[in-house]
């Protein structure tokens, strides 16, 4: 009865098909086992095999009809290599485009980062080429409804309004929220744009993501980034995930991690929830949310007590460990257990595992950063790794998993309120450096600002824009409140205190959302809340931005590798690329020429001119010496993208090979030239796969800790001790960073060319635009331009130099608040008054812990990203998570009569009452509840669909947890406290 | 001749659903039809949680095939169980019979109106000529004909899902198991029937042409 | 038998393959981390560890990578977690089931498949063939029951037009359902070889859709039929005698009967009412029309089995009824076709009913239309 029925027309010779299959099979599967020499396997036959077939069937695959109009006569199939836009793993994608339509998506097995693997989001990105639920044209809110307007009207009206606000209230009354989804070029251009508008009031997702990491880690040893890479975890013998749910948030990292595990790496997960990552661990430790420091100190206690610390390493390369040790030794096991809920044996076991299986790595993410003491928690993690001597070692390090696809890059070169691209700060010198790079006059830029003081004062943050709008003007540290908000690739439901945010939305004069999916902001702005006053003069505009698949540019993955995205398709509908919008808006605002003074313009959508991404990257290259964004020229990056197969999966290094197209020799390069890639591209620095690794020559990507904090502190040497220099360095002691003076003193000055001397005179390695100092120091002398110093276990410029545990402002444990109270209130902090102790005390006195006895934490689902508007508009993803929910422990649910799958109400002290489904599960303990934060479009039980611009409501809507989250900000960076607050969960009684 | 099989390695699967969306993407599978899905056993139970991705297992002794009232299933040389949507009457019997819940229907079934059955094709299309537009419209891509393997497996985030020549993938899986410890189990087509997770233990399927 | 369990129950497996208990393996110092002090411990604990009762966490501790406890759960077929809201999305393998007569439980899908493709098709098929042969035999051996005397020409309105409409709605929908249903059940064996795949596929598709829409009509129709005819179908004393003499069918003796004889009553209660309800009920479930029911595969399998058993029996019985209503009893078909019967027919077949008519207990005609028809028909004959 079984037949092999197949039309003869379509029948291939069986043997032919078998060999194809086995080739392809062997190839793809060999990659599943990274230990095997997969390069030796037969090359995958590639897309070409199917091209004929693909060509035959294209007629009907063309779903995105939008592009039909401009089709060339003959069908043309192209494969464009791009990178997933949904997280920092940086998975490469081959997009198959036919006649301008994205018809197919193929895995890139050659990528050393993901070996063809994806998570749900990456495997579904082609939907961006459909864009069914995107904003299709500019819109304006008129009488509570969004109406279509033309681009020109929109830009004219917006710029007029901006100039008006600038004139009447000052440039600081406009707040620009940029995006970690912008590529490096767009992010850098936006920072320049805001500067030319005359303000530092700009920010992006990094604030509410890893700002505490960046500040804490950079202040510990130099750079605030992931020290190693996802791939390098393969070399770890033990790995501790503390506050990272990689299986959902960085799923493809698990490819490397599980491989490590299978080759013997011990995996520990410390999390309040038994996550999908925890399910893969050898040892799971349930911790009380917000209590990471007690746990980490608990581990250090055992490490010090058993002498497991690396004494020589600490002596040579760490400053202040003795002070930390004093604090640590007060954390006796009973105190640790009291504070974080983990019994001594478990803490001991974790400490022993990390200590006895070195190199061991510590991996963290939002579980550590999103706290009012986030800066201290991340430093405690750094200290743990320093004590074990794990930093600067392959298989060790602090593997800080970054967030968005380009949050690393946007942090490095994008719209930060406290720095110019490359963390150059806001001091006069930094401004002058960048003005020179941008090719504009410093004085002209200064004139754009309210004053030089404002020019050099950090702006406020995206976490506090609500207060910048609502706070009494006399209490804020700028002339006027914020009156205009521009959301340029950022969702609203990602910031806390939704109820207050709605008030701020209603008070604004101008709201502009520039986004392919601006709808969450749009709906929140348009919705009416009973009894709430609405500014009658408010205007709201929505501008359709193109996605990253509709432009080209570079993107920095978590491991600091840069990848170049080719443009896949033309901007859909009426959308325009962000760089085009920036340029056009700048023209209307009167600084169009200056914005692109040194940037080439090329025709973009509809023949309109836009800045060329390559040229923008070259500008970044020219200026960003601090963190080594200077070597990654577009040519080098493109060569890497074309030749991914040449890079080793474990080391990321190219053993040898030339790019056929450009002739560029990649030998020795690390994939994507992970920053720092020092000097000019001509220096051919290979990038740095693992930071601070002294066992490797600096020209092979080696290094040491940065000398950024002086040479001594209170008489104690801050520079590295003798002998702890990077391999082959001419200077074998510690040394400060290089500038013209030191160069001359050492007699190295004459190794500069005359042209270099001219540029370097009076400069240091960061501001020498010729890159000459770097060249000589690195190439000729094997030294590190940023010096060679110790890492700081004590960060004296932070509120808690030795990281201290402090309880969150909203907690369920008054007994612990008494012991570990929070900071004192701050009067002006990032321009805003900021509450700590007064609020914490008030909460204890009001006995909130009785009314809200459950710790509420929030985080990610693998299917959705960020505010979720993009991913919830993608049917392939939306179908997999159709409703928001709260994870509640079976006992807590039973106590409240709540059953699995029922709707319930989660209430918090803000007065918010959000309606979500109950997911009754032992994933969380009895005292904890978890709600994913990707939902929006419901407002305390009400569906806001009617407020969305027509056709642009995402498929799945739900209650945003941030409607209900509470006040609380990190004492260094203004990170919002999203991981620990309190709630009650109630059954809905009909 | 290669005998196509799937293995899902529960020690690796992280319920990331890439396999699910890859399939949707590649074949433009409509909302409500899930050729593949991921199931988690002992969700949230410490030390006991395991996830498994499941689709059609292309059974050697396929119950769907046996029960179909119009006999619209067939098996390819590579052991892939396919069906003919032109003949399918949408009765749903294959879904009653299939142990894995693989057959899917585009409509809710009221008055028996389910529409034509759809299921995982092992990315091997259907009876129409390989790579033809009609084939794509009805069954999605024919990757096997292009010399490629199922996209779900190719894109699996952790390479938990192995799809391809049964001999090759069981070898790969065996290697992993050896590295991990003893006596691992495998989520494969044998699970429901109690046959060895080793495809060559199977008698080759009848072939008629 | 339960190969499956044996296969996945590694306890059984390793016990068979490997005489040494699995946990005893660490004893030799082959593994680096086995500490000598603990080497004897596993041996001790063997007695106490019931390997079948270990959960996955315990098993992983003892045998890393061994997932037998997980597979045990999977094979139980319960609902596990899946983020998809689809019914049964969380079921990896259907639970076990065992239909009456099956030797042991197997995966429900298999149990159902074997039951349907096995006994139900085989026994059902033979039963239907037997019923058909029975009817033919009846015809050949006994032949049609003819009236003993000629018609008297006086007519009784036996079935009003409403009653006839109701009956024929039931009857026609039944025939449609039977034919279309049987096409689904047996067509693959009988028709497909004749028509070929394409044509049969098309036909089956038509049949299936016809069946699915006509089913509910039938379901409603039998209810109305029941109400319409129930009052004359209550058992009477005479019915027992009728039954004992088998309606006099074989020995051609006279047996008393009311408006409906016991045979008809049997058909009414057993066929129309009992089997009709069973078939309709299960049919409505299969049509996914019963609100508030979980349409799991398991429920549908059960409904399917009930439906097939019910329909086969109903069709078998219907062979009898249809035979009697057409060629089996002279004049019967006319009764249902025109509604009118001759006095003589009534006297011969339903004497008790006829007595009631004669005594005026039951009216001779019940509707104006009936009266007119009766007159039309009798008028000329009289004249
Ligand atoms: N699918 C998906 N992937 C993403 C994103 C996305 O939106 N969706 N976003 C990207 C972005 S922007 C980021 S920043 C990353 C975030 O990636 P992650 O930080 O890994 O993800 P989260 O779910 O926010 O939080 C991680 C874990 O922290 C735990 N946690 C909560 N409180 C505490 C605590 O006090 N201590 C400890 N130790 N753990 C705690 C939570 O239970 C949670 O499991 O993911 C990136 N990847
Ligand atoms: N309660 C709670 N809140 C949280 C968190 C949490 O764990 N719990 N996590 C926090 C973290 S770590 C982060 S990073 C944030 C993330 O939150 P957001 O960053 O606010 O969320 P996204 O949806 O990623 O926002 C990106 C926006 O950019 C748009 N976009 C995409 N591509 C482009 C482009 O090319 N150009 C332009 N102009 N726009 C584009 C998208 O459509 C989307 O609207 O949420 C934070 N909020
Ligand atoms: C006299 C009455 C009926 C007969 C003889 C009959 C017969 C059958 C038969 C033989 C099958 C095929 C079973 C198989 O192939 O496994 C079937 C299936 C089915 N029957 Fe009936 N049936 C009758 C009444 C009904 C009624 C009243 C309904 C609904 C109200 C119904 C709904 C169905 C459904 C839904 C199926 C499944 C077929 C499909 O969806 O493709 N049937 N029937
Ligand atoms: C084509 C098929 C059928 C034919 C030719 C047929 C024929 C007849 C005839 C001639 C009568 C009148 C008998 C008399 O006067 O005593 C009758 C009565 C009846 N028939 Fe049918 N019939 C058919 C199908 C059905 C079906 C499918 C049902 C129900 C499931 C049914 C239910 C009845 C009932 C309830 C009566 C009245 C007798 C009683 O209530 O006992 N018939 N049929
Ligand atoms: S979201 Fe992250 S892990 Fe998933 S495919 Fe994209 S880059 Fe890779
Ligand atoms: S898994 Fe189900 S659909 Fe696939 S061959 Fe087996 S029985 Fe048929
Ligand atoms: S639904 Fe289609 S494929 Fe499945 S058994 Fe019915 S006719 Fe066959
Ligand atoms: S093999 Fe192809 S059709 Fe089957 S589940 Fe995987 S992607 Fe879908
Ligand atoms: S893609 Fe792989 S890891 Fe992810 S759910 Fe599917 S099988 Fe599991
Ligand atoms: Mo983030």
Question: Can you tag this structure with a few keywords?
Answer:
heterotrimer; A: alpha/beta; N-terminal domain of TfIIb; Dimethylsulfoxide Reductase, domain 2; 4 domains; seven-stranded mixed β-sheet; six-stranded mixed β-barrel; 34 strands; 14% strand; C: 383 residues; two-stranded antiparallel sheet; two-stranded antiparallel ribbon; 4 strands; disordered C terminus; binds ligand MGD; binds protoporphyrin IX containing FE; binds iron/sulfur cluster; binds molybdenum atom
Short description:
Chain A is an alpha/beta fold.
Overview of the molecule:
The complex is a heterotrimer of chains A (990), B (209) and C (383). Chain A is an alpha/beta fold and 990 residues long. Chain A has four domains: 19-129, N-terminal domain of TfIIb; 139-209 and 430-614, Rossmann fold (3-Layer(aba) Sandwich); 211-400, Dimethylsulfoxide Reductase, domain 2, CATH 3.40.228; 814-987, Barwin-like endoglucanases. Chain A is 30% helix and 14% strand. Chain A has a seven-stranded mixed sheet, with helices on both faces. A six-stranded mixed beta barrel of chain A has the order 26-30-27-29-28-34. Chain A has a five-stranded parallel sheet with strand order 10-9-8-12-13. The N and C termini of chain A lie far apart (57 Å). By secondary structure, chain B is α+β, with helices and mostly antiparallel strands. Helices cover 22% and strands 13% of the residues of chain B. Chain B is built from six helices and seven strands. In chain B, the strands form three sheets. Chain B has a three-stranded antiparallel sheet with strand order 6-1-7. The two termini of chain B are 16 Å apart. Chain C is 63% helix and 3% strand. Chain C is built from 16 helices and four strands. Chain C has helices spanning 3-8, 10-17, 41-48, 56-62, 68-76, 108-141, 161-190, 192-195, 197-229, 237-244, 262-286, 297-328, 332-338, 343-349, 351-358, 368-382, and strands spanning 96-97, 106-107, 155-157, 340-342. In chain C, strands 1-2 form a two-stranded antiparallel ribbon. In chain C, helix 11 (262-286) runs antiparallel to helix 12 (297-328). Chain C is elongated, with a radius of gyration of 32 Å. Residues 1-47 and 379-383 of chain C have low confidence and may be disordered. At the A-B interface, helix 1, helix 2, strand 3, helix 7 and helix 32 of A face helix 1, strand 4, helix 4, helix 5 and strand 6 of B. Bound molecules: ligand MGD (2 copies), protoporphyrin IX containing FE (2 copies), iron/sulfur cluster (5 copies) and molybdenum atom. One ligand MGD binds at residues 179, 181-182, 205, 208-209, 366, 370, 403-404, 488-491, 494, 514-517, 545, 547-548, 578, 858-859, 865-870, 933, 961-962, 965, 978 of chain A. Chain B: This is Formate dehydrogenase FDH3 subunit beta. Chain B: Keywords: 4Fe-4S, Electron transport, Iron, Iron-sulfur, Metal-binding, Transport.
């Amino acid at each position: 009865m079984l037949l092999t029925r197949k039309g003869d027309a379509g029948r291939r010779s069986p043997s032919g098909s078998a060999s194809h299959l086995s080739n392809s099979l062997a190839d793809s599967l060999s990659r599943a086992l990274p230990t095997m020499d997969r390069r030796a396997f037969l090359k995958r036959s590639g897309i070409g095999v199917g091209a004929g077939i693909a060509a035959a069937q294209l007629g009907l695959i063309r779903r995105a009809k939008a592009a039909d109009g401009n089709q060339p006569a003959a069908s043309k199939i192209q494969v464009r290599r791009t990178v997933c836009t949904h997280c920092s793993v940086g998975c490469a994608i081959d997009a198959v485009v036919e006649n301008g339509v994205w018809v197919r998506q193929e895995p890139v097995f050659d990528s050393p980062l993901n070996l063809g693997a994806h998570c749900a989001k990456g495997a579904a990105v082609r939907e961006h080429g459909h864009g069914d639920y995107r904003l299709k044209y500019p819109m304006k809110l008129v009488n509570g409804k969004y109406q279509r307007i033309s681009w020109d009207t929109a830009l004219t009206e917006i710029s007029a309004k901006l100039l008006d606000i600038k004139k009447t209230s000052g440039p600081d009354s406009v707040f620009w929220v940029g995006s970690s989804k912008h590529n490096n070029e767009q992010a850098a251009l936006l920072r320049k744009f805001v500067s030319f508008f005359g303000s530092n009031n700009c920010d992006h997702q990094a604030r509410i993501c890893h700002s505490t990491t960046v500040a804490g880690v950079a202040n510990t040893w130099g750079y605030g980034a992931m020290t190693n890479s996802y791939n390098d975890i393969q070399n770890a013998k033990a790995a501790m995930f503390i506050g990272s749910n990689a299986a959902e948030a960085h799923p493809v990292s698990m490819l490397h991690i599980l491989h490590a595990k299978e080759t013997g790496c011990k995996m520990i997960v410390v999390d309040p929830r038994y996550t999908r990552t925890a399910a893969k661990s050898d040892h799971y430790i349930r911790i009380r949310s917000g209590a990471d420091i007690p746990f980490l100190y608990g581990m250090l206690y055992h490490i010090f007590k058993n002498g497991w610390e690396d004494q020589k390493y600490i002596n040579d390369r760490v400053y202040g460990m003795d002070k930390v040790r004093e604090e640590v030794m007060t954390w006796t096991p009973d105190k640790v257990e009291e504070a974080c809920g983990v019994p001594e044996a478990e803490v001991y076991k974790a400490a022993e595992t990390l200590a006895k299986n070195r190199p061991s790595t510590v991996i963290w993410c939002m579980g550590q950063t999103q706290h009012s003491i986030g800066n201290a928690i991340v430093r405690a993690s750094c200290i743990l790794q320093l004590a074990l001597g794990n930093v600067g070692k392959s298989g060790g390090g602090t593997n800080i998993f970054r967030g968005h696809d380009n949050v690393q890059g946007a942090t490095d070169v994008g719209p930060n309120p406290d720095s110019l691209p490359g963390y150059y700060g806001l001091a006069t010198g930094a401004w002058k450096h960048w003005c020179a790079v941008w090719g504009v006059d410093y004085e002209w830029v200064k004139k754009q600002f309210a004053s030089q003081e404002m020019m050099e004062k950090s702006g406020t943050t995206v976490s506090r824009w609500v207060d910048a709008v609502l706070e009494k003007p006399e209490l804020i540290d700028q002339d006027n409140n914020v009156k205009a908000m521009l959301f340029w690739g950022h969702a609203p439901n990602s910031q806390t205190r939704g109820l207050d945010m709605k008030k701020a939305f209603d008070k604004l004069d101008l709201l502009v959302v520039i986004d392919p999916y601006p709808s969450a902001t749009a709906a929140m702005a348009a919705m009416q809340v009973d009894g709430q006053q609405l500014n009658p003069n408010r205007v709201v505009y929505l501008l359709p931005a193109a996605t990253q698949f509709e432009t080209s540019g570079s993107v920095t993955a978590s491991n600091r590798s840069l990848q170049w995205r080719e443009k896949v398709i033309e901007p859909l509908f009426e959308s325009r690329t962000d760089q085009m919008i920036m340029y056009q808006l700048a023209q209307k605002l009167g600084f169009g020429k200056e914005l692109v003074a040194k940037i080439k313009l090329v025709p973009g959508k509809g023949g309109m001119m836009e800045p060329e991404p390559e040229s923008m990257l070259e500008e970044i290259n020219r200026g960003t010496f601090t963190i080594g964004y200077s070597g990654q020229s577009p040519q080098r990056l493109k060569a890497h993208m074309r030749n991914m197969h040449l890079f080793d999966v474990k080391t990321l290094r190219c053993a040898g090979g030339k790019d056929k197209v450009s002739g560029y020799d990649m030998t020795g390069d690390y994939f994507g030239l992970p920053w720092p890639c020092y000097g000019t591209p001509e220096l051919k620095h290979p990038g740095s796969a693992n930071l601070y690794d002294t066992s490797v020559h600096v020209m092979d990507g080696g290094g040491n800790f940065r000398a950024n904090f002086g040479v001594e502190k209170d008489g104690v040497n801050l520079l590295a001790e003798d002998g702890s220099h990077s391999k082959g360095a001419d200077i074998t002691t510690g040394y400060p960073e290089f500038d013209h003076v030191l160069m001359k003193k050492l007699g190295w000055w004459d190794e500069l060319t005359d042209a270099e001397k001219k540029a370097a005179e009076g400069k240091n390695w960061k501001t020498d635009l010729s890159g000459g100092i770097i060249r000589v120091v690195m190439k000729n002398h094997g030294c590190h331009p940023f010096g060679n110093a110790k890492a700081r276990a004590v960060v004296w410029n932070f509120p808690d130099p030795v990281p201290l545990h402090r309880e969150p402002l909203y907690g369920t444990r008054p007994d612990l608040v008494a012991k570990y109270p929070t900071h004192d209130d701050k009067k002006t902090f990032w321009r805003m008054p900021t509450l700590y102790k007064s609020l914490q005390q008030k909460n204890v006195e009001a006995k909130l812990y009785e009314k809200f006895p459950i710790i509420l934490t929030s985080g990610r689902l693998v299917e959705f990203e960020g505010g979720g508007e993009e991913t919830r508009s993608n049917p392939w993803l939306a179908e997999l998570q159709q409703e928001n929910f709260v994870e509640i422990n079976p006992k807590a649910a039973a106590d409240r009569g709540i059953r699995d799958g029922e709707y319930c109400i989660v209430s918090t002290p803000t007065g918010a009452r959000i309606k979500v489904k109950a997911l009754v599960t032992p994933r969380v303990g009895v005292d904890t509840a978890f709600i994913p934060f990707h939902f929006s479009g419901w407002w305390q039980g009400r569906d806001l669909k009617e407020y969305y611009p027509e056709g642009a409501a995402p498929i799945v809507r739900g209650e945003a947890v941030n409607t209900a989250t509470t006040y609380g900000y990190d004492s260094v960076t203004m990170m919002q406290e999203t991981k620990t607050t309190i709630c009650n969960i109630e059954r809905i009684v009909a | 001749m290669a005998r196509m099989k799937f293995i899902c390695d529960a020690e690796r699967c992280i319920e990331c659903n890439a396999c699910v969306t890859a399939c949707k993407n590649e074949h433009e599978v409509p909302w409500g039809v899930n050729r593949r899905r991921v199931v988690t056993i002992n969700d949230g139970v410490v030390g006991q949680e395991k996830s498994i991705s499941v689709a059609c297992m292309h059974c050697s002794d396929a119950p769907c095939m046996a029960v179909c009232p119009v006999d619209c299933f067939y098996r390819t040389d590579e052991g892939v169980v396919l069906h003919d949507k032109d003949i399918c009457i949408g009765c749903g019997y294959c879904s009653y019979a299939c142990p894995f819940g693989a057959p899917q229907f585009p409509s809710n079934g009221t008055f028996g109106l389910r529409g034509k059955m759809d299921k995982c094709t092992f990315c091997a299309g259907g009876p129409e000529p390989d790579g033809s537009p009609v084939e794509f419209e009805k069954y999605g891509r024919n990757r096997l004909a292009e010399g490629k393997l199922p996209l779900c497996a190719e894109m699996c985030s952790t390479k938990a899902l192995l799809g391809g020549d049964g001999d090759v993938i069981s070898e790969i899986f065996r290697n992993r198991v050896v590295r991990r410890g003893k006596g691992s189990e495998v989520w494969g087509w044998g699970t429901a029937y109690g046959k060895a997770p080793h495809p060559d233990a199977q008698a080759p399927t009848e072939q008629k042409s | 038998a339960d190969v499956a369990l044996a296969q996945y129950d590694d306890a059984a497996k390793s016990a068979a393959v490997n005489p040494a208990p699995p946990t005893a393996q660490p004893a030799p110092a082959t593994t680096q981390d086995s500490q000598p002090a603990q080497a004897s411990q596993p041996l001790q604990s063997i007695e106490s560890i019931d390997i079948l009762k270990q959960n996955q966490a315990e098993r992983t501790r003892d045998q890393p990578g061994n997932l037998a406890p997980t597979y045990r759960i999977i094979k139980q077929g319960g609902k596990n977690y899946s983020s998809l809201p689809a019914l049964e999305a969380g079921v990896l393998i259907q639970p076990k089931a065992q239909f009456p007569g099956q030797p042991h439980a197997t995966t429900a899908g298999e149990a159902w498949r074997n039951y349907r493709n096995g006994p139900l098709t085989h026994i059902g098929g033979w039963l239907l063939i037997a019923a058909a042969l029975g009817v033919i035999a009846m015809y050949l051996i006994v032949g049609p029951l003819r009236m003993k005397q000629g018609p008297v020409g006086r007519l009784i309105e036996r079935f009003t037009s409403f009653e006839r409409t109701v009956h024929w709605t039931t009857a026609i929908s039944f025939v449609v359902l039977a034919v279309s249903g049987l096409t689904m059940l047996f067509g693959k064996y009988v028709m497909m070889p004749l028509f070929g795949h394409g044509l049969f596929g098309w036909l089956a598709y038509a049949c299936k859709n016809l069946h699915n829409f006509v089913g509910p009509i039938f379901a409603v129709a039998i209810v109305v039929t029941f109400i319409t005819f129930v009052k004359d179908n209550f058992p009477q004393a005479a019915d027992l005698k009728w039954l004992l003499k088998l309606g006099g069918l074989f020995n051609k003796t006279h047996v008393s009967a009311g408006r409906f004889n016991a045979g008809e009553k049997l058909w009414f209660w057993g066929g129309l009412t009992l089997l009709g309800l069973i078939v309709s009920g299960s049919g409505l479930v299969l049509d996914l029309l019963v609100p508030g029911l979980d349409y799991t595969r398991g429920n549908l399998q059960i409904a399917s089995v009930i439906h097939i058993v019910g329909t086969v029996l109903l069709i078998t019985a219907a062979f009898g009824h249809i035979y009697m209503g057409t060629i089996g009893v002279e004049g019967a078909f006319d009764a249902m076709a025109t509604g009118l019967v001759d006095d003589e027919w009534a006297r011969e077949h339903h004497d008790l009913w006829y007595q009631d008519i004669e005594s005026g207990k039951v009216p001779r005609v019940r509707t104006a239309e009936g009266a007119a028809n009766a007159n039309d028909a009798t008028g000329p004959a009289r004249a």
